[in-house]
């Protein structure tokens, strides 16, 4: 079993990364159809800023990882978008967060 995982883990990671990238690109196209450039730029700036904010504040809180960080970023983004009068579906938001996190990690 260990050998199987060692052999196929890189391939599985590559497939998942490709699927995430494809999904993110499709989402961007969908968002482009529903918003103007100014709104898109604002949404992306809010997502990037919130993810970076969460990364920064959780550096000292080693107990907050993975899902907790994701949820904090999501809640922060939703509040900021609401303040700007913008709406986004949960699925779209989750994909944008994942896309930016992958960008931060250097995966495209």
Short description:
By secondary structure, the protein is mainly alpha-helical. 81% of the residues lie in helices and 0% in strands. The longest helix is centred in the N-terminal third of the chain and has 33 residues, at 2-34.
Mean pLDDT, to the nearest integer, reads 79
Number of strands: 0
What is the strand content?
under 5%
Q: Gyration radius, to the nearest Å?
A: 16 Å
Largest sheet: none
- Counting H and I runs of at least 4 residues, what is the number of helices? 4
Shape: flat
Elements, N to C (H/E): HHHH
Helix share of residues?
over 70%
Count of folded domains? 1
Distance between the termini: 30 Å
Structural class: mainly alpha
- Low-pLDDT stretches are none
Describe the fold and architecture.
This protein has 108 residues and is an all-alpha fold. It has four helices and no strands.
Question: Which helices and strands, and how do they pair?
Answer:
Layout: H1 2-34, H2 37-57, H3 66-83, H4 90-105
Helix pairs in contact: 1-4, 2-3, 2-4
Relevant terms:
81% helix; 4 helices; 108 residues; 0% strand; mainly alpha
């Amino acid at each position: 079993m260990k050998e199987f995982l060692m052999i196929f883990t890189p391939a599985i990671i590559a497939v998942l990364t490709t699927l995430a990238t494809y999904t993110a690109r499709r989402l961007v196209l969908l968002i482009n159809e529903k918003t103007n450039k100014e709104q898109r730029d604002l949404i992306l700036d809010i997502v990037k800023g919130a993810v970076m904010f969460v990364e920064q504040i959780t550096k000292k809180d080693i107990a907050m990882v993975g899902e907790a960080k994701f949820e904090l970023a999501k809640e922060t983004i939703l509040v900021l978008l609401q303040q700007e009068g913008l709406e986004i579906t949960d699925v779209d938001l989750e994909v944008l967060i994942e896309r930016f996190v992958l960008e931060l990690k250097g995966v495209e």
